[in-house]
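Deviation from plan, reported transparently: 6-diazenyl-5-OXO-L-norleucine complex.
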Amino acid sequence: MAAGPDVVTEALADIHRRLGALDEGEPAAYIPELARARREGFGLALVSMDGHRYQAGDAAEPFTLQSVSKPFVYALALAELGLDEVGRWVGAEPSGEAFNAISLEQGTGRPSNAMINAGAIATTALVPGATPAERFERILAGLSAFAGRRLDVDAAVHASEAATGDRNRALAYLMRGAGSLACDPLAATDLYFRQCAVRATAADLAVMAATLGNGGVNPVTGERVVGERVAVQVLSVMATCGMYDASGEWLLRVGLPAKSGVSGGLIAVSPARFGAACWSPPLDRSGNPVRGTAALRELSERFGLHLM
Ligand code: DON
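Because the crystal trials were delayed, the predicted structure below was used instead.
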């Protein structure tokens, strides 16, 4: 984006103002605590590679990461184990199915990719540590390094998902039965529920996205969080799988690696330029945020960001 700071600030304010009137979709309700979200809450944020931060609306309001955690935990697993070992447990093909589908490879039981629930649970199961607490601390420390500040867990959302997450436990047991889950199913799903309940703001998410776009170096803190190769691997999977069964349409119209979450968070990365994030709880039928999708599409068109 060759645009100067004032142009970016004005573009975010304008997009925020106009899309605030877009009142479609519904906040997720299958995790009861998420149904309490403020449907009019709407924040936009953008961080450039020189660490300049822009925002509009409710960019400082916290919400839980949910699936937006998946690319970052995938990055941590890749950094620990490398692509070949991680690839033994989780694939890199779009599933063309919903985020909670049983998309397991025939024969191996390996989930299609790390962006759907099954693949994310398999990825979380790879994070090393002597105890569950140590493993979660590794995840939280990693997510915090991406954000550039210490994040925390929303205990109410964690408890709500733990009380209702039987489908994810079932996915974990299916994978364990097929030999494609590296640890106990209940341990893996509890870690996964905790990572999904980590709380951040749109402003944090934009820094996290920018870190991936900056080859793994946080552009605000200067800390190297993961290697450049890992950042490229994560962006590749986000580009093909980050928006679930709407990933093809997203790449066609927006043209940026992205990841959505059911709490209404959405990140998109313009490699070597910026990380962008949106928060707005109402979701479309694929489970992607309605305003976030429209906002990123506008930003991409306005600044000619499509990668192709
Ligand atoms: O596992 C779940 O269902 C949630 N914790 C996360 C799902 C999610 O965010 C899907 N994204 N659109």
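The chain is about 45% helix and 10% strand. We consider this an acceptable substitute for the interim report.
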